Amino acid sequence: MVRDGEIAQFLTHLEKERDVSPNTVTAYRRDLEGFRAFLQSHLGHEAIAWEEVDRLAMRAWLAHLNRRGLSKRSSARALSAVRSFYRFLHRADLVESNPARAVGAPKLEKRLPGHLDRAQMETLLAAAVTQAQEGRFTDVRDLAILELFYTAGLRLSELRGVNGADLDLVAGLVKVRGKGRKERIVPVGAAAQRALREYERVRDVLVGAVGPTADRRAFFLSRRGARMSARALHNAVVARLSGVDEGAGLSAHALRHTFATHLLDGGADLRAVQELLGHASVSTTQIYTHTSVERLKQVYRASHPRA
């Protein structure tokens, strides 16, 4: 019988022993529950053990994901979750083989990450500075968010997790807790330091007005004094991005891509950018070199008489 117990054990293993991020645990839970539901529907009954799932069932599941309109990237992630789950079952001697290894992952199209060019970034920040000068809490806060995103190349979850104690604006550094709760130290530029200091001032006023219920540990707060949610952070950034390029459909992650692209365009070493981004492998960082090369090709085609 397909049991939820093994899925729960696997997710606990990820969270407690491998220390993966909460977002990854949530994604794996969703993928594995979908896999379990498919097996029960596909086989017409619940009385099947994990070890009875074979290569044909795996292929049928991938075809099912395709019919649902899932992107190749989402299907590949789901397959990765099932492969990891079966490796866990195999190590626990609950299955003899991993049927997910017998099927190939969907071939992913190479996507260059969306980002802003330097002129667009200047326009974005200049507009945010103008609004922040009026002193409204949300405008001052949102400028600090944009500046920290761009100066440090953080993930959305990393920025949300920043606490006041993580910032050293005298030394110009921020301590970041990344994927797998790995910590890294990232420089904070002069413009971001100014925006963050001004936000600290209005934040202290807000905390005093809200009183004991305010989250004094979290750095970025809602107007009610609570740590901002990931959705609120994302919406705040996207609202600003749409003012620069409304039709681009850029997400908050575009600022992280912009950070990396501008560093590499400026001649930064790939390994240094890898460390700043908190990538485990330099191969992940290399996609930004494709972005830079693509930009150079566009300049070449537009400028060279024989292009």
Core attributes:
307 residues, mainly alpha, DNA polymerase, domain 1, hpI Integrase, Chain A, three-stranded antiparallel sheet, 3 strands
Describe this structure in words.
By secondary structure, this protein is mainly alpha-helical. The protein folds into two domains: 4-102, DNA polymerase, domain 1, CATH 1.10.150; 118-252, hpI Integrase, Chain A (Orthogonal Bundle). It is built from 13 helices and three strands. The protein has helices at 4-17, 22-43, 55-67, 72-91, 118-132, 137-152, 156-160, 190-210, 230-242, 254-265, 270-277, 282-285, 287-303; strands at 167-168, 173-177, 183-187. The longest helix has 22 residues, at 22-43. The protein starts with a helix and ends with a helix. The model has no long low-confidence stretch (mean pLDDT 86).
CATH-defined superfamily of the largest domain:
Intergrase catalytic core
Chain-averaged pLDDT? 86
Strand content: under 5%
CATH architecture of the largest domain: Orthogonal Bundle
Shape: globular
Read across the widest sheet, the strand sequence of neighbours is 1-2-3
| Name of the CATH class of the largest domain | Mainly Alpha
Total helical segments: 13
Distance between the termini: 63 Å
Helix-strand category: mainly alpha
How many discrete structural domains? 2
Q: Stretches where pLDDT falls below 50 for ≥5 residues?
A: none
Order of helices and strands: HHHHHHHEEEHHHHHH
- What would you report as the Rg, rounded to the nearest angstrom? 23 Å
- Strand count: 3
The biggest sheet amounts to: 3 strands, antiparallel
Helix content: 55-70%
CATH topology of the largest domain: hpI Integrase, Chain A
